[in-house]
Amino acid sequence: MSIAAPEPKANMGRPEPRLDARLKVTGEARYPSDVPVGNPLHAVLVTSAIAKGRLDRLDTEAARAVPGVVEIFTAENTRELKPLEYTPGGGGASTSVQGLGPDIAHDGQIIAMVVAESFEVAREAAYKVKATYAREAPSASFGAAGLDEKPAGKEFPKAGDAAAALSAADVVVDAEYGTPTQHHNPIELFTTTCVWDGEHLTVHEPSQFVYGLKNSVAKRLGIDPAKVRVVSTYIGGAFGSKAQLTPRTPLVALAAKRLGRPVKLVASRDQGFTIATYRAETKHRIRLGARRDGKITAYTHDGREVTSRPDAYKVAGVSDTVRLYDFGTVATSVNVVHADRNTPGFMRSPPVVPYVYALESAMDELAVALGMDPVELRRINDVTKDTVSGKSWSSRSLMKCYDEAAAAFGWSRRTAEPGSMRDGEWLVGWGCATACYPTHMAATTARVRLLPSGEVRVQVAAHDIGTGAYTVIGQTAAERLGVPLAAVTVELGDSDLPPGPVAGGSTTTASTCSAVIKACDAIREKLVRAASTANDGPLAGRSPSDLSFTDGRAVASDGAAESVADVMQRLGTAALEEYAEYIPHGVQQDGIRKLYSGRAAMTGGPHGDKIMYALGAEFVEVRVHARTREVRVPRAVGAFAGGRILNPRTAHSQLMGGMIWGIGSALHEATEIDPREARYVNDNISEYLIPVNADVPRIDVIMVPEEDAEVNPAGVKGLGELGNVGTAAAIANAVYHATGKRIRDLPIRIEDLL
Amino acid sequence: MQPFIYQRAETLEAAAQAAAASRGSHVEAPVQFVAGGTTLLDLMKIDVMRPATVVDINPLQERYGAIATDDKGLRLGALARMAQVADHPSVRRDFPVIAQTLDLAASQQLRNMATLGGNLLQRTRCNYFRDVSWAACNKRNPGSGCAALDGMNRKHAVLGTSDQCIATYPGDFAQALVALDATLEIAGPQGRREIAVQQLHKQPGSTPNIETQLVPGELITAILVPSAPWTRRSLYLKVRDRESYEFALASAAVALDIADGEVREARIALGGVATMPWRAKEAEAALRGRRLDEAAAEAAAEAAFAGAQTHEHNAYKVPLGRRTLVRALLDAARLEIRS
């Protein structure tokens, strides 16, 4: 065992290495753009240099003259693409299904695609496409002229009379917070390769939802979805950016059809900033009222989020933050601010990252105002019945997480006074915050086949976006059928497989493993029946409940056993195969039908009979140079409880990676927008900063054992999006502790502290 | 990237000859030299530079890539790789500021490839310069304007700017050389010459497209750093948004000769804040003959930024630059120098 592969504690599986680890580190894993196709053409996109207005003229003459250019696709010759309706949280955003002009709705809108015999030729020609525009003054973001601000819905969580409770409170915190635009920047770029075989289209594209992509591409092309296959075996990072249709895919498909050859597109890094989605800027006003003894009596949270002109995309994380503590009274609202931007979308922990950052900063401000330890403030306000709905929690280990993380961190040695923990020229600050993520389950299917040799094949069009899905799904089948992991083959990421959930909302493990368990149990049942009802077998007459499966055998409690091969011989079959559908409690019965048509059906978090969340506590140390004010994070400790942990190694990796992202969101990440032009300026990973190794010297992850039989059959809460929640608040709180300065707008930069 | 002719130069003369017909400013010349390729190839891929011919000078490395030291100082071949120089024991001992500017720059992979000559000539990271979809850039397209003046200019310069360009010189190594009065050997179509590193770069003025006083076809062949009593008490402090692999928001190269508690000589160059490697002579003068205490360091820092011009998002660079210099000076004064 090592730091990377922690010893399993109670209710944890084995820390198996990833099934795909060797393939990935040796370069053998074929990502979608690596898949060889016969005689491909290469496409390069041309994008708009304005955010609002009209494309007056597109001069393609010089580009067409470059030897090797085959065709240039523009608004003129792509009109046959069909419209697609925007559905919040699914389908394609309106800015993903617009034409290639003449109307320009956002910076970097695709206006042409050059297709050539080589990538180099296509790129050369793309620079020679000259556009002239009739530019209009765009509205970039908060504070710009010409924005359109509206409530994001009719109703947001509310409980009791928060205004009255605030005016009666002994202590009130009233503060505003802000978070910037962020882009996912997966290392694997946005690529698409389309291959037609007659009427049948195969799309090789990194996707977090192959059934969604299959169906939306088909609609946009006006063809039967049954004729589209999307293959996405390995995905080089996604974080939400590859969950929806982007404008490129139908365009590449159209080009391949028109030109009668496969077409391959690898969009450039800067184009990735505008042809896919992003995390929008948010602003928050929070008021917390409390009694002198620390009991919170009121919480109000008014959120504002930037979106595009046509789509009211919102994350509205108040529906999660109101669950966190016993607030007494609650009043919340969310507005969307329509600007001249492309539509934002999911980005790792979409609702909770900005909203929990704001709340957990305000919690720290309240602790300071009360003169109280911030951990104790959370203990006093720990909740058992939800303030808004009155529901109880399926399980809640928040204070266990706080206590374990605090002990590991050495929190008791903290002195409360800001600036009091100086070490030479460095001001030291310690801070903490809560991490939370709603436990989501999605409707899904799975198919499992067992051979007499003990070999198992699991098939589901779920997605491994680098999280370890292949491995935990394999472990689940191995455990359930009593075979070694090495005997299990897992196939994911192909729309020819039975449909799986969108790799979003941290649903994959909980949902897919629940479906796999169901399919395995159906196989077990057949085996058990055959073994126990046989006249002459070693297990004849045994009660089914007496039998378990291990090492390829059905075994009774007294040791009597029969090999699976023999049982199958008895059944007269060469393979046992089961297809199972898992419809989580709370999802309607047509959930699977919807899934086949590319619509995800999800439930959980606050929406079920019980409140279901994975929770954690994060502690960080920051050091701020007394003179030059660089902020560094030498160490961070996080303790997390997420129900059953199927694989402590992959879980550790997710949580650690999340905390690293959290450090980035606190100190580094921000997409800068030129306010005059509503255009992204630092659209590359040289200038869009994320932490490098030197920025994360030490991250300790503690997994707190937790059992929750109510969430789903797998007992899993899902923690892919847990680790990066709260980190930014913990850092902002630590910066306050180090310097006495409360920075409320992220990222925290040197100039904020001079 | 536009198609180009690739040539290999086996001799200096061949390199000069290949570029002899070139016109315009050094960076705009249709013939460009490539060594490590860490700047030129990037800029060609994003269509910012479009040379018709690229002359590979790597074959000259054996002749012009050596590191030599003697009593007079340090001689660095312009084709020495950054990592090679940073790891050289004499450089580390006698010219720590040079080793530090190299160590703190870029990433190990880039340092393994990039040469010293190319490092000195690296071009600005201004996002408006590096993205051809922005029409206004006087450096890229003279007379077109400057999108950064009223744009996102958090990382832009406050010293040596003009109303035509505020792009920051991004390098680190040049600051060490400027502080230590290093000189360059240059070979070109008109023969050989020697100039001070300080003379190499130009302020943007009304011609931001002319970045150096090199003419087309000229190559830096060697860097000479004179020995001096202050080279060992020297350091480079680089302040940036993250711990590694990032350009400076503000940096200071300082070298001090301190005797009997008094500054006999101070050499200071600033990075991350200026349009070119910035020698801070006023700051040096403010220190000469004084005890290097906090007040003296602050007076020097005040003098260094007296002429600063700020824009909407970079005003912080004045206090940050001052503090960086103060910290560097006080740290250098505290260094224990073993003979």
UniProtKB/TrEMBL annotation, chain A:
Annotated Gene3D superfamilies: Aldehyde oxidase/xanthine dehydrogenase, a/b hammerhead, Aldehyde oxidase/xanthine dehydrogenase, molybdopterin binding domain
The Aldehyde oxidase/xanthine dehydrogenase a/b hammerhead domain, residue ranges: 26-137
Pfam families (UniProt xref): Ald_Xan_dh_C, MoCoBD_1, MoCoBD_2
Originating species: Rhodoplanes roseus
Coiled-coil features, chain-numbered ranges: none
Keyword Oxidoreductase: yes
Protein name: Xanthine dehydrogenase
UniProt keyword terms in alphabetical order: Molybdenum, Oxidoreductase
SUPFAM superfamilies: CO dehydrogenase molybdoprotein N-domain-like, Molybdenum cofactor-binding domain
TrEMBL record, chain B:
Keywords, sorted A to Z: FAD, Flavoprotein
FAD-binding PCMH-type domain span: 1-230
Keyword Flavoprotein: yes
InterPro entries with a match to the protein in the record: CO_DH_flav_C, CO_DH_flav_C_dom_sf, Diverse_Substr_Oxidored, FAD-bd_PCMH, FAD-bd_PCMH-like_sf, FAD-bd_PCMH_sub1, FAD-bd_PCMH_sub2, Mopterin_DH_FAD-bd
Keyword Cell membrane annotated: no
Xref: PROSITE patterns: FAD_PCMH
A Gene Ontology molecular function term of the record: oxidoreductase activity
Sequence intervals crossing the membrane: none
Short name of any one Pfam family annotated for the protein: FAD_binding_5
PANTHER family in the record: OXIDOREDUCTASE (PTHR42659:SF1), XANTHINE DEHYDROGENASE SUBUNIT C-RELATED (PTHR42659)
Full protein name: FAD-binding molybdopterin dehydrogenase
Species assigned in the record: Rhodoplanes roseus
